Amino acid sequence: MIDDDLARQLREAGLRWQPASGDTFAIDRPDMGGERFTVSDMTIEPHHFDTGTILGFNGTTEWALDSLAVEDALWIPREDQLRELLGGSFRHLARTPDGYRVTILLGGEERIYEHEDAATAYAHALLSLIGAAVS
């Protein structure tokens, strides 16, 4: 799973989130560091309004939080979501002695991103892809 800083970099690079059941997020506030939540039709459900998306906390007793604007949530994309976002640029994922290697095609050249965590390697590849699209 990617960390908050990398998720924040993806958001700042332009990655937008449409909350769906099974998605993981953090509340993007300093006092909430490390806490993870999962969108679920049973407990945390996205409600879409003309004014924006609100994450409703249904029936949670441990929180005095009824809802949260999606702008205050930090999406933590899963490995499969990051791979899907790479689209046709994704070439392959390989295991290395130290972790994982993600290879993408960017500007006609293969680019390699390595990390001990596969999702983090995917996220770095996606940051490069987004950066190239903006440039």
Key features?
135 residues, alpha+beta, three-stranded antiparallel β-sheet, 9 strands, 25% helix, 35% strand
Description:
This is Pilus assembly protein CpaE. Strand 8 (99-106) and strand 9 form a beta hairpin. The longest helix has 17 residues, at 118-134. The protein is an alpha+beta fold and 135 residues long. The chain contains three helices and nine strands; from the N terminus they run H-E-E-E-E-E-E-H-E-E-E-H. Helix 1 (4-12) runs parallel beside helix 3 (118-134) and helix 2 (79-86) packs parallel to helix 3. The protein has helices spanning 4-12, 79-86, 118-134; strands at 24-27, 37-38, 44-49, 52-57, 67-69, 73-76, 90-96, 99-106, 109-115. A three-stranded antiparallel beta sheet has the order 2-1-6. It has a three-stranded antiparallel beta sheet with strand order 3-4-5, with no helix packed on it. It has a three-stranded antiparallel beta sheet with strand order 7-8-9, covered by helices on one side. The protein is elongated. 22% of the residues are buried.
What's this entry about, in short?
The chain is of the alpha+beta class and 135 residues long. It contains 3 helices and 9 strands.
Distance between the termini: 28 Å
Q: Structural class of the secondary elements?
A: alpha+beta
Total number of helical segments? 3
Number of strands: 9
What is the helical fraction, as a range of percent? 25-40%
Task: Describe the strand arrangement of the main beta sheet, using strand numbers.
Answer: 2-1-6
SSE order, one letter for each helix or strand? HEEEEEEHEEEH
Question: Main sheet, how many strands, which sense, barrel?
Answer: 3 strands, antiparallel
Q: Which term fits the overall shape?
A: elongated
Organism: Leifsonia williamsii
Protein name: Pilus assembly protein CpaE
